[in-house]
Amino acid sequence: TYKQVAALPDKQYRATHALFLFQSGKRDQAVAEFDRLNKADPADRDLRTDLVRAYLALNRVADAENVLTAALKKNQLDADALLQRARIYLGSRKFAEAQADLNRVLHFRNNSAEAHYLLAKVEQGRGHGAMRQQELGETLKQDPRYAPARVELAQSLIAANSAQTALELLDQAPT
Hints:
There is one protein chain. The protein starts with a helix and ends with a helix. It is mainly α. It has helices spanning about 1-5, 15-25, 25-40, 45-55, 60-75, 80-90, 95-110, 115-125, 130-140, 145-160, 165-170.
């Protein structure tokens, strides 16, 4: 049934069978299906994201990175691929590479709250507390509803003996 749904002409259903396989524990078959779909339509970023997620779930980090690097060879301006690869680099503690990808994202998407948040993670990994706070603040400037950044900035302020400022920051959160 899932194969039939995936064969429907509407693009939104293409990954249905692969997702079913993945959720059923047939993860290697699911990855093969995601890979086939990605090769059939390399411009579909949703399919690529599903493939990358499947690789990461199977701890095949190098394969996920290779998919994103190949996509970036075709389109250097693919901000989604850059953000995904930056997340992988962060997980591997490759801070310089993550920062380079994030700076490229910000070059053509300067209002990306996610990119600023990930830069804050880079600074955290490097032990640069002040730069981390600055990037968390920039994240909230771009998107005041970005709750993880607000909480982390408040925690950072509390650790720096600025509990009142942290409380004010939390009170300013949108409803």
